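User: Predict structure, ligand adenosine monophosphate.
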Amino acid sequence: MKTLKDFNFEDKRVLIRVDFNVPLDADFNVTDTNRIEAAKPTIIKVLEDGGSAVLMSHLGRPKGIRNPDMSLGHICQTVSEIIGVSVKFVDDCVGEKAEKAVSELQSGEVLLLENLRFHAEETTGDVDFAEQLSRLGDIYVNDAFGTAHRAHASTTIVARFFPGQKCFGYLLAKEIEAIEKVMRTGEKPVTAILGGAKVSSKITIIENILDKVDHLIIGGGMTYTFVKAQGGLVGDSICEDDKMTLALEILEQAKAKGVAIHLPVDVLAADDFSNDAQTRIVAVNAIPDGWQGLDAGPVTLENFKAVILASKTILWNGPVGVFEMESFAKGTVAVGNFIDEATQNGAFSLVGGGDSVAAVKQFGFQDKVSYVSTGGGAMLESLEGRSLPGIAAILEP
Ligand code: AMP
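Assistant: Predicted complex:
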């Protein structure tokens, strides 16, 4: 795997695909700078080598139309402050203007291009558009994990114009290493904790992961499809009846593969899907009609704790309860605390995929786990075992 360390960028113009798709407030101030900070090490490496950096990104979904509200010009000042260099801006990402701005760039300088998605050719993966982008650098670096699952011009197609002159940035390399640890190289026992609302949205992950893990903890709304399939009473809990056969097949597959599955045994049930509902702890397979399981129960959490603390590699995707409501967030917070403890004891822990990161950030766990993925969809597809086009394009000669 070629990374930045394999290159010396002295006197090179380096075209870097970053993910600067950051939130802006009504006055166009950046309200969360995480993604810009995450790209900083790659940019600094290029500058310290004596090269110049040409940054390209999308912002929002302008759908091929030049929309001033989504101009990357709004974030130029913030990028300058974070990188510590006065960043130049050009109001297009291809064509004469962009090429002129690049040709005037000196070593140590940074140029930010205008929003890639002002051109519809970006998302369609247009080859001519990618070729035009490729004129803006001697070397191509992809450091945008959040878009690595898209075969867009700047994330994938452009790479073919840089044979032998392309690599992953530090951020993308870190994401790949984290996934590798969970999927292939991590110390055993390896445990995946899968929560969230539905079996149907996690099924491909479950099937892929059964070949990689020793323990699979299933929590959240998915629980009830498994419990009902085994003859349990789930009351009004969320349940996908059409996935019950699949649930039984997963349990069979897990047994055949020697994967221990851990399902909740008790739950915090509520008489309404509301924070103010009445609640009681009940057995997971004896939930009365009119009641629904909305969080993990105390015995369940003790069981989960034992498994998590004995693990050396941990993947966490999805909350084990309706964490958006305070009354049903305790299970998810507890799981976060167990992972924190395991990580302090030397385990490697990765959180990512879909909305998992929102839960982790809400409860302040982002600094307590080993790695929080920056790409929701890209991480989900990785966990499903799919090859990401943006990564494959760098690995090609
Ligand atoms: P996902 O995006 O698939 O990870 O699902 C996350 C959602 O699952 C969150 O919005 C949770 O509120 C929801 N969820 C977790 N547990 C339950 C449950 N027992 N019943 C209903 N929804 C749940």
